[in-house]
Amino acid sequence: MPVFNTVVASQDTEHPRIARLRLNRPDKLNAINSSMPSDIRNAVAWAEALDEVHVIVLEGEGRAFCAGYDLDEYAEGVDPENRTGDHPCRQEKTPWDPMVDYAAMKRNTEDFMALWRCTKPTIAKVQGYAVAGGSDIALCCDLLIMADDARIGYMPTRVWGCPTTAMWTYRLGAMRAKQLMFTGDTISGAQAAEWGLASQSVPASELDAATLALATRIAGVPRGHLMMHKLVVNQVWLSMGLEQTQMFATVFDGITRHNPEGLWFRRQAQVGGFKEAVHWRDSGRPIPEGDEARALIAELEKRLQAGA
Asked: Percent helix, strand, coil in the chain (nearest 5)?
C-alpha cells in the first residue's frame, strides 16, 4: 500500500472493489496542513489506477471528518511541522501579489477536485465536522453520507475566507447557498440530507454500515458504466461554468485574507490566538471593517512588535 503523510490508503479487506482513503490527523480533527491537499490527490490517483476498485470512500480518523485549515499554522503563523512552504497564509509579503496567492490556493483546489474529476465514484463519510476547508473536501466528493449530528458549513465566509471550490451553489442552489455564505452558519447532517446536500443522514452509530451499504451497491456496477454516468453529470456542471466560478472564488479567497477585514482577523489571531478570533467571528458580533479595521490593525501590530 502507498504511504502518505496525512492520508491512509487501502482496499477494503472484505470488499476489494472499495478503496478507503482516511484523513489521518486525528489529534487536529484532521485539519488541513501543507501535505494534505497533495496527499489526497495522490491517494485518489492510486485508487483510480487499481482496476479492481470501483468506488472510493473518503473518511476521517477519529472524531471529525475535517475541521478545515490548521489555524495553528495558517492563522497564527506557527508551522508545527517546521515547513517553509510557499502557502500565502504562511508567508505574508508586502505588497501582496494576488497571482502568487491565486496559484497556491488554486493548486489546493485542484488537489481537492481530484475527488470530483476521478472517473470512479467518490463518497465522503462525514462524522463530527466537515467545516471551512473540510467542507470543500467533502463537497468535491460525488456523494455525502453524514451522521445526523455532524456539522457542515463554511464559517470563514464571515471573514477571512471564500470557498475556493465554489461547490455550495452547485450542490444546493442559489438561495440556500447564499443563506450559508451570508451567515457562515453550519447545518447538521440531518438538515443537509433534508436540503439535498447529503445523500443520506443516519445516527452516528449507523454511519459505517450505511456507507458500506451504498459503496457495495455502487461497486457492483461495471467500471465503464460508472465512468460514463459520472462524466455525463460532471459535464453539466462544467457547461454551467464550474471552472470559471472556481477561478473567481479562488481570487476572492485571497482578497478576503488581505483586505482590511481579513488582515484584522489575522492580527487578532496572532495577538490573542485563533480561538479568540474565531469566537468573535462566529458569535454574530459585528466584524470591524474599513477604517475601523485599519485602526485596530495598527493597534494590534504595535502589540505584536512590543512582544517581539
From this structure: 55, 15, 30
Asked if the model's pLDDT at residue 82 lies above 60, the reply is: no
Rounded distance between C-alpha atoms, residue 172 and residue 122, angstroms: 18
Give me the sign of the Cα torsion angle 257, 259, 263, 264: negative
| Residues 6+ positions from 80 with CB-CB distance below 8 Å | 33, 70, 72, 73
Going by their DSSP bridges, the two strands 143-147 and 122-126 should be labelled as parallel
Could you read off the pLDDT of 190-207 as tens digits, one per residue?
A: 999 999 999 999 999 999
Q: List the 55-60 sheet strands across, edge first.
A: 7-11, 18-23, 55-60, 122-126, 143-147, 200-202
pTM metric for this prediction: 0.94
Query: Taken in order 68, 74, 76, 81, is the CA torsion positive or negative?
Result: positive
**How many other CB atoms are there within 10 angstroms of residue 84's CB atom?**
8
pLDDT of residue 256: 97
Distance, CA of 302 to CA of 308 (rounded, Å): 10
